[in-house]
Each structure stands twice: as C-alpha cells, then as structure tokens.
C-alpha cells in the first residue's frame, strides 16, 4: 500500500506537532488557518468504518488535546474538526484523518458547507437510523 500519511510516518517527513505510537499530529502542506493540524492514527486505518474503537478513542483524545492547545496557545476562539470517510465523502487521502482548524471571529472564512445534499431517501432517515441503533445497542461503558 502506498499511503501518503504512512509514508510521512515511515520517513519521518512531516512537520510533527506530536508523534506517538497510537496517534500523531502534523501540519498540513496547505493550511486553512495558522496552526491548522491533521490528527491521524499512527497505524494505517482507511476510514471511520475500519478503525477499532479503542484506536479511534485515542485519536479523538489527541484531537481534543490539540484543540485545547489551539485555544490556549494560539488564542483561537474555537475550532472546526473536519473529516471525510469513504469514497462518497470526498476523502482525499485513504488514511483516517481529522483536520483541526483553529478559528477566530475575524478570520473571514467558513469551513461550513454552503449547500445541502440533493440526495433523497424514501423512508424517514432518522427513524431508519434510530431503529438500526436500537437493534445493535452500545457495549457497556467502563
């Protein structure tokens, strides 16, 4: 497999914010804002659908930690956390990643979608999801 992010890890070729055994964070080549950071699982997982829950939890904990440092160190008023999973989502690199984008009230841009999906689902999607969730309950939390 020729994964861009796996190559960055293997070659130590990224501008690392932090690099750990389970999750890592680095600066993208084309940042949307000062301090924009990508958080990835250090091992290869293609998307949200194949990552084990415990690795996802560790990765999201790093997302939260990076976001907190953006608020305290960069004085960001907030953050946007962006991710895409699967071919229908515009995922550009097939390695799960989360963009953590610091935001300020005067930054004059938006990461929020400006359009709504045109896709139609015959039945009520909320009911479909609620029924599916009820049929496969969560494991007990610690």
SSE pattern: HEEEHEEH
In CATH terms, the superfamily is HIT-like
Radius of gyration: 17 Å
Question: What is the multimeric organization of the chains shown?
Answer: single chain
- Kindly report the average pLDDT value: 94
The main pleated sheet reads as: 5 strands, antiparallel
CATH topology description: HIT family, subunit A
Shape estimate: globular
* Percent range of helical residues: 25-40%
Structural class: alpha+beta
Number of spatially distinct domains: 1
Named at the architecture level, the CATH assignment is 2-Layer Sandwich
Supply the CATH class. Answer: Alpha Beta
In the sheet with the most strands, the strands line up as 1-2-3-5-4
- The termini sit apart by 36 Å
Number of H- or I-type helical stretches: 3
Number of strands: 5
Return residue spans where pLDDT drops below 50 for at least 5 consecutive residues.
Answer: none
Strand content: 15-25%
Motif (Histidine triad motif): 95-99
GO biological process, one term: nucleotide metabolic process
Protein name: HIT domain-containing protein
Pfam family, one: HIT
């Amino acid at each position: 497999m020729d994964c861009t992010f796996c190559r960055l890890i293997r070659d130590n070729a990224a501008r690392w914010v932090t690099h750990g055994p389970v999750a890592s964070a680095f600066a993208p080549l084309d940042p949307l804002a000062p301090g924009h950071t990508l958080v990835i699982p250090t091992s290869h997982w293609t998307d949200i659908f194949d990552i084990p829950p415990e690795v996802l939890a560790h990765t999201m904990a790093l997302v939260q930690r990076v976001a907190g440092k953006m608020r305290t160190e960069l004085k960001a008023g907030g953050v946007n956390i962006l991710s895409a999973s699967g071919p229908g989502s515009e995922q550009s690199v097939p390695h799960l990643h989360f963009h953590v984008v610091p935001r300020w009230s005067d930054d004059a841009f938006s990461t929020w979608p400006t359009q709504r999906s045109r896709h139609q689902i015959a039945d009520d999607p909320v009911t479909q999801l609620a029924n599916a969730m009820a049929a496969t309950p969560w494991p007990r939390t610690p």
